[in-house]
Amino acid sequence: MAGSDLPKVLAFDVFGTVVDWRTSITAESADFLARIGRADLDPATFTDNWRRRYLTGMAAYAKSGRDFTILDVLHREMLDETLTDAGVDPATLDDALLQHWTFAWRRLAPWPDSVEGLTRLKGRFPIVTLSNGNIALMLEMARRDGLPWDAIMGAEVTRAYKPDPRAYLGTAKILGLSPQEVCLVAAHHSDLAAARACGLKTAFVSRPMEYGGRPAPDAKLAQDWEWSADSLIDLAEKLGC
Amino acid sequence: MAGSDLPKVLAFDVFGTVVDWRTSITAESADFLARIGRADLDPATFTDNWRRRYLTGMAAYAKSGRDFTILDVLHREMLDETLTDAGVDPATLDDALLQHWTFAWRRLAPWPDSVEGLTRLKGRFPIVTLSNGNIALMLEMARRDGLPWDAIMGAEVTRAYKPDPRAYLGTAKILGLSPQEVCLVAAHHSDLAAARACGLKTAFVSRPMEYGGRPAPDAKLAQDWEWSADSLIDLAEKLGC
């Protein structure tokens, strides 16, 4: 693609694209399940169920009419529901433990290429988050993992959750850019499709282990994205960084 | 001060505290005034008049009832007014030139100690902006100057301009912290006084050249702040960084 078609800012999905939520949440959930005496529950299944509630909740959020509520709070509500579904009454558990478990989403480890890839991309492009994670969550994660964001943007700044168009269009507007001057970088075809419908450029990063090796739920939404890479280092090379 | 009293996050005023607006705006305004054929106007006086409009505008903003409008837009309005006061009709000038002049506020140079001081402070504390500058402005400035913010916060995120209490309290809330867990770092007693009234901790950084060596307009508001330093490097040493 010609240099004139390069975006002015790269905006990143984070959960799954930059960090490996499933490995981190499974490991922490194994510990928490043991602490509440439920080591019989499979932590990977528990994690997948928790994440499934998130995906469903985000897709339905705009239509729900609910006032904007930060993801830390939603993650806690979804944890309580996931526990209830597993036969555990969260009201019987220590609130501080549940809060610490919820904040496992702030402690996700990056994919091995993420820090190097982001650092290289940052040399040429401003790199911002366009994530549904709230600012405090993203800030703690960035400091733990060394993710060198230029700015933390996304849901809390626009007060809209992806795939709501306001999340994408609001981020471009705040940056003072037209949608086509912003490129969403994401491992999820559903996210990229929503961004493209708003006029953003799109870069796909393949993360075959996001669901433990099983197909992603949005695999059928694949399109011919402007860029496609196997890692953030590969994306940096493809963008001339 | 005992370690237990240390803040959890350092939130920075930027204009005057981290960057030297007067030197940068005066130099750019000298060039722009020459380009519009008004090299007879003193660029430092022009700059001081522009900044005075800002200080007045911010102090009155909450009571004005105006919807939140980003600082890039307000800076442009204030430029037009400053030109009018100087006997120049901005309607006769090229709009692109006026926009470029306005964006001089994105191109301010840091004080000599700022990058090293912030980098050291960041080793121990999350460092965020708590500035009236909008996100796009702060993002461009940070990349030009190498200011290593963990997050860009402040007016646009809280939709309130300092010294409105909502700017300080909203920033703490978004961080998930109580006001006393956040320390405002600023060169301005007026800003620190407003932050203290909201319960934030306060750190004063002396910038005797902010007004070209003349006293700051809020000099009489000096108090005994929790910390007081001659530079951001000095502050880093006082906070054990």
UniProtKB/TrEMBL annotation, chains A, B:
<keyword id="KW-0378">Hydrolase</keyword>
<dbReference type="InterPro" id="IPR023214">
    <property type="entry name" value="HAD_sf"/>
</dbReference>
<dbReference type="InterPro" id="IPR006439">
    <property type="entry name" value="HAD-SF_hydro_IA"/>
</dbReference>
<dbReference type="InterPro" id="IPR051540">
    <property type="entry name" value="S-2-haloacid_dehalogenase"/>
</dbReference>
<dbReference type="Pfam" id="PF00702">
    <property type="entry name" value="Hydrolase"/>
</dbReference>
<dbReference type="InterPro" id="IPR036412">
    <property type="entry name" value="HAD-like_sf"/>
</dbReference>
<dbReference type="InterPro" id="IPR006328">
    <property type="entry name" value="2-HAD"/>
</dbReference>
<protein>
    <submittedName>
        <fullName>Haloacid dehalogenase type II</fullName>
    </submittedName>
</protein>
